[in-house]
Design brief:
With about 250 residues, the chain is α+β, with helices and mostly antiparallel strands. Helix content is about 30%, strand content about 25%. It has six helices and 13 strands. A hairpin with a 2-residue loop joins strand 4 and strand 5. Helix 5 runs parallel beside helix 6. The protein is globular, with a radius of gyration of 20 Å. The relative contact order is 0.20.
Amino acid sequence: MTADDGTPPPFPGAVGITNLRVYPWQTDDGLHGGTPHVHLCCTECYVVVGGQGRLQTLTRRGFEESPLAPGDVLWFTPGTIHRAVNDDGALQVVVIMQNSGLPEAGDAVLTLPPEQLADVATYRRAVSLTGPNGSAPPSAERARARRDLAIEGFAELRRRCAAGDTAALDDFYAAAAALVRPQLDAWQERWEQGPAAVSRQTGEQLDALRGGDHSHLAGATVTRIVQPEQTTLGMCGFLSPYDPLRARRD
C-alpha cells in the first residue's frame, strides 16, 4: 500500500533489479566476462535481454556451464560460485536479486586466492576499486585486476574439485562466511525492513480478505522508476541499478 504521505510502495517482493552489461574484457584463460563470486544469503536471477554468453558455476555437483541467450531466465541459489562469460561482447542481462538487492549491498565474496581471504582488511584491499588507500576514483583497471585475481582463485577451486578434493568448497565457504560476519547485523535489518515486512503485509491482507475487509485495495497505485543513467563498475560488468528512492507515482 501507499503511505499517507504519497510515498510509493516498495518494488514487488522486496527484490532488487539492475541492468547488467557483462564486461567484454578478455581474461587470461582466453574468455571474456566478469568476476567469479558467491552469495551467502541470496538467490540471484538473470533475465537475458541481449547477446550470447554462458554462466559458469561451481557447486558440490561440480563445474557446469549454462548457455545464455535472449529470452533465457536462469537463477542460482546461495553457495553457487558463478562467473558470467560474454561470448559475443554484447551480453546484457536484467538481474533480479533477492532480499531488496542485498547482493549489491555486500552479500558477495569473490573467489580470490586463499591468502587474500585471510581477514577482512586483506580482502577489502584486494577488491577495492579505489586503490590501497581509497584516495583514487574507481577505475576499470582496478576492476579488471580484481576480476583476474578472482579468476585465478576460481581456477584453483575448479582444479581441486575436479581432482576430488572435497574440502575445496568447504574451505572457501568458511573463509567467505568469516569475511561477511561483521555485516550480518546490517543484513538482518535490511531483511526485516524489506522482505520480512512485505511478507507480513501479505499475511495481513489475507487475514483482512478472509474477514471481508478489502479496504487495502483503495490504496491502489502505479509506480515508476526511471531508467538508470549512472553506470558503475560491478563484479560481472557495468551496472545500472534501479534505485527505489527514485520511484515515483504515475
